[in-house]
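Let us practice reading a record.
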Amino acid sequence: MEKSCSLLVHFDKGTPAIANEIREALEGNDVEAKIDAMKKAISLLLNGETLPQLFITIVRYVLPSEDHTVQKLLLLYLEIIEKTDAKGRVLPEMILICQNLRNNLQHPNEYIRGVTLRFLCRLNEAEIIEPLIPSVLQNLEHRHPYIRRNAILAMMSIYKLPQGEQILVDAPEMIEKLLSTEQDPSAKRNTFLMLFTCAQERAVNYLLTNVDKVSEWGELLQMIVLDLIRKVCRTNRGEKGRYIKIIISLLNVPSTAVVYECAGTLVSLSYAPTAIRAAANTYCQLLLSQSDNNVKLIVLDRLNELKSSHREVMADMFMDILRALSSPNLDVRRKTLDIVLELVTNRNINEVVLTLKKEVVKTQNGELEKNGEYRQMLIQAIHSCAVKFPEVASTVVHLLMDFLGDSNVASATDVIVFVREIIETNPKLRVSIITRLLDTFYQIRASCVCACALWIVGEYCLSLSEVESGLATIKQCLGELPFYSFSEEDEGNDSSKKVQQVNSMTVSSKRPAILSDGTYATQSAASETAFSPPTFVQGSLASGNLRSLLLTGDFFLGAVVACTLTKLVLRLEEVQPSKVEVHKASTQALLIFVSMLQLGHSPVLPHPIDNDSYDRIVLCIRLLCNTSDEIRNIWLQSCRQSFVSMLTEQQLRETEEIRARAQISHAQPDDLIDFYHLKSRKGMSQLELEDEVQDDLKRATGEFIKEGDAANKLNRILQLTGFSDPVYAEAYVTVHHYDIVLDVTVINRTKETLQNLCLELATMGDLKLVERPQNYTLAPESSKKIKASIKVSSTETGVIFGNIVYETSNVHERTVIVLNDIHIDIMDYISPAVCSDGAFRTMWAEFEWENKVAVNTVIQDEKEFLDHIMKSTNMKCLTAPSALDGQCGFLAANLYAKSVFGEDALVNVSIEKQVDGKLSGYIRIRSKTQGIALSLGDKITLKQKGGI
């Protein structure tokens, strides 16, 4: 049976040492050889060897050595050797080491005394320790603080032993006297720790007696004081009022570690606004004063927790939190923005937006390499603010439009999406936005940004001057026609080769595009991450961004240009009284369409025009040649109405989510409530009074009561052995973020005493057993609770299996009972999350692991099946409810979730209703790691039939 080990010794792999060689080295006079031999002996013992023949050699030749390293290795050896026999009695030869330990405790060298005292901390045999007690007590008065603090730790370890209180009868009184005279900070800390551990009432009395001096104590002692306060208040919340004053006084000490712990303790003990404000102020000061990014991230996590439970108090701290944007680290900036965006109110929105605008301007200097990513984060933050508070949109939209031509495509895309939303939700800004967009259109270099900008131009250019400006801008960016000259086809062979070389990167990826509903579509588009230089086709003048993108083979953008020109010409018919001008514009648009089709079939480009874009451009040609009122309404009104309904639905969903988060559980109407104005205020400070009131409010609203805990516990109890087994075992599984705790209850159902009972566990998957449970002796018909911790390193379904091993007095062989397997469910690590359609498509294209599961279910309704999959996988549907309405026999939806390890899980459900009423199709799962894709696939396969 493996034993627990308290030390780890490194040794190089090689041929194992032989006991005879070690003995010869130990018997010699060479100190270096003795050191090497002792290290080998310790390594062999740690590997499971017993080496009983070495003990007497070590007693004879190693004990008398004066070398410090040899003495240290000797203590390590004594720590790991077996000191008791099979019945638990101390071996007689162990008496030989007692005299040596006593001599070491009285040694003139401080190091020898110190390491020996540290060794006693790890000694559990009372028979060996008892003769050494007088020597340990003498060391409490040693002149050197190193000896005193280790002597105190040794006393604390001895006092914790089962017979410790009999061995050290008056230890608490002795330590209390020592505490009043000790001057060394480290020794004083150990003294108070022992008093706190062994005699808590005495520690509390000492603290309350010296309450005015706490702020002057050393950092180590102050940390122990905070531990004591937390423990006392956890057991007796009624006494926390007097301790909060101590915590408030410690908030001003120079030690940042103490200040951080004070703030955490204050938040855990009190709900009073004054206390929360003091803790938040402390966190903000640490956020600005500490240069370590890890510290900043930890502090931001604490502020985030405060924000979720004390939003009103935190709303006043937003400017202090925003100062953390001065850090160059993107993770710090991202967390800071996430916190501040949830603290934005009508009172502080203008200050927040002003700060964000200043930060956006700073990113233009280009000094930092990640300015583009930071600018994208700021633009998204401003977008969020403008959606919540439309009145601020006018102050930021024109500034952000300067970044439409940004080299960071994601940043430019965020800007144009923001402009598209603002121009619809703020009609007063429409004219100025359109004018600014047409003025800066030539600066846009990204295909997707151009496409969105063209859609805005086609939908929101309403007056005659705007329509004419829109037509002129598009023509200017397209340049002179034609795009390709037939007469110079042969002469352009060399240039066409150059074109192919330039654009090899652009067209190398022919992956289909993913639409917002998760379905695929063919798209030929220029690369949006790197821009190739303008492609020159011989015989034509390349000028303008639209022309450059078209000449790279981006015919999806060509189809968008055709649709925009068609809308502008149709609107020109409504606002232009002169028919001649209308016909002229229509003719020019048709010429552009034909030129794009001509370019699409030319051999100059690396690939021809795709069928989707070709059909779209041909449709525009037919529409301009023959227009009906019904078609006109579809093109000029229906498209915009769809966009409006999408925005309305999006805002409605966000409002519902906010309402759902705001709902809190309420207590029963007959619960006792204390009334604030009827409280006795005698001897209570304002902070104590606030704390009492807040406690009452929390109690009244039921926040101290966690409903469903008992039911959840019952659901998580797993039976490990059968009812007929001599040992019955069941486990309660608690899943935290990064570890699993098994509370195993073991019951001896026999009439015999079970000796050396051990719970042996093993894991499969990304699970790791932290420590092996120790051996126990179980009396007849008695029970024992055993705890085991298991670390989790990734989101993957894991299995814990093992057995219970024990011995009885009658049977010499060991009995083994095999346990039922414990399956760790992936759903414990996955939670529903939200991301934008663009982010979903990007991740879908990037993630390399895909698991494709065929639909096989008895459910016959598409929507019901989708709801069942969402419930089974604990994922959130990103597809709008309006897109899922109706009965068409088809359904495509995207689901998204995030694990506690930060992993993304993407699911696309595509199903079709067959003639016989059954559902068919596929569920595709994509993730960055293999484990989550396989585990989710297994879960869906198991659950998709419904009713399981």
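A brief commentary: Residues 725 and 817 are 8 Å apart (CA to CA).
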